[in-house]
Amino acid sequence: MSPDSRQRLARVLIVAGSDSGGGAGVQADLRTVAAHRAFGTTAITAITAQNTCGVRAIEALAPALVRAQIDAVLEDIGADAVKIGMLANAEVVEAVARALAVHAPPNIVLDPVMVAKGGDRLLAHDASAALLERLVPMARVVTPNLPELVALTGAEPAAGARQAGRIELARKLAADGPMVLAKGGHAAGETLVDLLVDARGVVGRWSHRRLATRATHGTGCTLSTAIACRLATGATLAVAVGGAITYLQGAIAAAVPVGTGCGPVDHLWQWSE
User: Fold this and answer.
1) What is the mean pLDDT of each run of 10 residues along the chain (273 residues)?
2) Known catalytic residue: 242?
3) 262 an active-site residue?
4) Catalytic member of 21, 40, 218, 263
């Protein structure tokens, strides 16, 4: 079969930070893209020194360099979907927003990465407003965990303790235009419930058993990228979210121990012999 006769790979642009430990960030994102048989490109926003135990150092890249990466990719290769992860500060948020406004790629998935698993801050406190104003309205779907949902809506931490409260917070965030996947991993209980919400209410609900494991590093990155990969092939949002949740559950269940802290999932579990 000649190269010209093969079906074109879906193209997914990853805008995110680098994780030296390999469990999250662009490293996890690209493995997820590979698992979905798509073609991944990147715009690196920050460099982190981290492992499974925590983050030791962070350095954001110059906003102009972040913008140049996005321009270079989209002017030549293009993208069928864009996943946005760690952005570090308001200046990088603005650079990303300006680039995406010019190129207008479809299927923007925004994972509002604010705090690492170990509690280290990955988004400057003053950048939340820029994220809400500039990027949330561009997104097709935003994928916050409960602490991120609380922070983005300015609510009290207890506001999302119950499912009804989480739904109301998600509706508030969805009022700016995107769908919101309010993830259930931080909620109490052995059954997790992920909720897809628009400004009117719940439009999708997925329940699954909580897995007893420490292999949870990068799960948010992995889920949002899996959604982007599926949207890139033309799946509806509900189908993309459901398939991505199933993929992540398999990746968590198949994980083998790496490091001494919160280890990574097995992104390529479906391809294991």
Assistant:
1) 65 98 97 98 97 94 98 98 96 97 98 74 82 96 93 85 90 94 80 94 92 91 98 98 97 94 95 70
2) no
3) no
4) 218
